[in-house]
Specification:
The chain is mainly β. It contains 7 helices and 27 strands. The strands form 5 sheets. Strands 10-11-12-13-14-15-16-17-18-19-20-21-22-23-24-27 form a 16-stranded antiparallel beta sheet. A 5-stranded mixed beta sheet has the order 3-8-9-6-7. A hairpin with an 8-residue loop joins β12 and β13 (221-235).
């Protein structure tokens, strides 16, 4: 990371600040505050940098703001002060938190879309673009970094941005911590955590158990989580970090959405259909990841990563009873295995910093759907294997034109390939309206190729002022669920062949910095304009199924202050 000289710019300071600086003790405190705040670094741009030296909108949430929130129940408490970020479904564990950044992610019915999630350098977003925070242990999180705005030049399909979460390191003095919390609606949570640093070995282990009956009817949740991070330093220039995460969520009831009139009558009631069909899900997931870093020579660093995730999901959707014979597939049995890796080389010199790398990810979903017979598993209605593999190659360079002016540019090439292997050919058994007796093989392959460039300029005339502008692009492929075939009322297998990648171009100017003379004030502001093409839009069919179509005209999002 290139350091910048601090220049005095006294003529622009107001008289009150001049008087403040005339006091040597206060001035010394202000300088120390500037040094402390200026030392805040981020790694989500794929290199370690000072937060104020990134030519884009980025925020960092610290350990206290995460762990001292509302008992680390969801991510919304930690992100509430990050501008441009909005979180829904915070306490509906069956739906998981829905996160939106600058409007991206709003179309998701559940989970997180349009935003790449990383935990300790390991992706929590599958190659097809689906992510979730249900497996994250916020009780051991040290920081959350949020890149706001398109980041496809670095991360591929990241139209809305990136959320990167880092688990805390073990302190020099080993410790053990226990925490027990109780509250209304039969809420109780137990957490045990310990960590330390023993020579070359640094470790953190955390385990928690949650029981919550919920504010609304049919909103019970139970889960157990285990999270660990172990780092071994071979020497001062190389290390290997291993992360393991295990979750078991046997009960996550879904009370469903209510009409306004139903809320007025009884806001704690569950939707009638969700009670009838026992809406909710259970999840098991295991994750294992490795990150190796080595400074092979002064200014030259390589990073290698490798990970494996297994996930089993049983989901009951509120449809599929014999009362509604044209609504098959109300129970989903999904076995998912995704894995991948990547490599990155970074050169840091006196006049530039250059990064080159690649990512390879593979996802295999064994998806079965059954009729939901008022909560019981009915006949099989869909059986297919969904394979998604993605390859991305990226390069990024920062050129220090002067001590105060930096030009940044990056580009990434991505190829994403979807393949469906149909294992269920009794198409006459499904559909709305019913299909004629026929045997169809809905297997198929769809491939996307995208090029995502960006360019940015940062001008830092004073330690309190960092002005930037950038133009960045993004793309977003449909997920396997958004690819649902509209044939048969959305219940057929295979792909919706009419869908393409959604693309966007972001134009942004902003400023950020530290004003230590004003009680160590930090600020950031951005004005942006985003043009979106081929926007994916969900359409609800008569049988409560949702399929997607595309708006082939351009959508311009209003500029905002964030």
């Amino acid at each position: 990371m290139k350091s910048r000289p601090v220049r005095s710019f006294m003529g622009a300071l107001p008289a009150a600040v001049l008087l403040l600086l005339s006091n040597p003790i206060l001035a010394q405190d202000a300088d120390q505050a500037a040094e402390d705040l200026g030392a805040i670094t981020v790694t989500s741009p794929r290199v370690e940098k000072s937060l104020n030296e990134v030519p884009g909108a980025i925020s960092k949430v610290g350990k206290d703001d995460i762990q001292l929130g509302q008992q680390q129940l969801t991510i919304d408490e930690a992100l509430k002060e990050v501008p441009g970020v909005f979180v829904l479904n915070s306490y509906n564990y069956a739906q998981d938190s829905r996160i939106m950044i600058r409007g991206f992610g709003a179309r998701a019915d559940f989970g997180i879309r349009s935003i790449k999630l990383y935990v300790d350098g390991i992706p929590s977003t599958t190659p097809d673009g689906q992510g979730g925070v249900d497996g994250i242990d916020f009780g051991s999180a040290a920081s959350i970094e949020v890149i706001r705005g398109p980041a496809s030049s670095l991360y591929g399909a990241a139209a809305g941005g990136v959320i990167s979460i880092t688990t805390e390191d073990g302190p020099p003095v080993p410790y053990a911590e226990a925490r027990y919390t109780v509250g209304e609606y039969d809420f109780d949570k137990t957490q045990l955590k310990f960590g330390g640093d023993n020579g070359p070995l640094n470790y953190t282990f955390s385990a928690s158990r949650l029981h919550f009956e919920g504010y609304r009817d049919h909103s019970k949740a139970e889960n157990v989580k285990f999270n660990s991070k172990v780092r071994y330093d071979f020497d001062s220039t190389s290390s290997l970090t291993a992360v393991m995460n295990i979750i078991d969520m046997p009960i996550q009831d879904d009370p469903g959405a209510l009409l306004l009139s139903e809320v007025a009558a009884d806001r704690r009631q569950a939707r009638a259909r969700n009670l009838q069909f026992d809406g909710g899900e259970s999840v098991e997931q295991q994750k294992l990841g490795f990150v190796y870093r080595n400074e092979i020579a002064p200014g030259h660093e390589i990073q290698l990563r490798n990970y494996y995730v297994m996930r089993n999901l049983d989901n009951k959707l509120p449809f599929g009873s014999p009362v509604f014979p044209f609504e098959p597939g109300g129970q989903i049995d999904l076995d998912r295995f995704f894995f991948g890796g990547g490599a990155q080389y970074t050169f840091t010199g006196d006049i530039n910093q250059f990064t080159l790398g690649f990512d390879v990810d593979q996802q295999t979903d064994d998806r079965k759907e059954f009729d939901n017979l008022n909560g019981a598993k009915g006949p099989l209605s869909l059986n297919q294997e969904e394979d998604v593999n993605s390859i991305g190659i990226f390069a990024f360079n920062e050129q220090y034109l002067t001590d105060t002016l930096t030009l940044s540019g990056g580009i990434r090439y991505d190829r994403v390939r979807f393949k469906v292997t149909d294992k269920f050919f009794n198409d006459s058994a499904i559909g709305f309206p019913p299909q004629p007796d026929t045997v169809l093989d809905d297997s198929g392959v769809i491939e996307f190729e995208e090029l995502s460039p960006m360019v940015g300029l940062l001008w830092s005339p004073h330690r309190s002022i960092n002005l930037y502008s950038n133009v960045s692009t993004s793309f977003e492929t449909p997920t396997t669920t958004e690819f649902a075939n509209p044939a048969g009322g959305g219940a057929a297998g295979g792909f919706n062949q009419n869908l393409e990648s959604q693309t966007a171009t972001n134009y942004e100017v902003g400023m950020k910095g530290i004003v230590p003379e004003w009680w160590s004030l930090t600020y950031n502001a951005a004005v942006f304009h985003i043009d979106v093409k081929n926007e994916l839009v969900g359409i609800e069919l008569a049988n409560n199924r949702e399929v997607f179509r595309m708006l082939h005209h351009q959508i311009a999002m209003d500029s905002n202050l964030a």
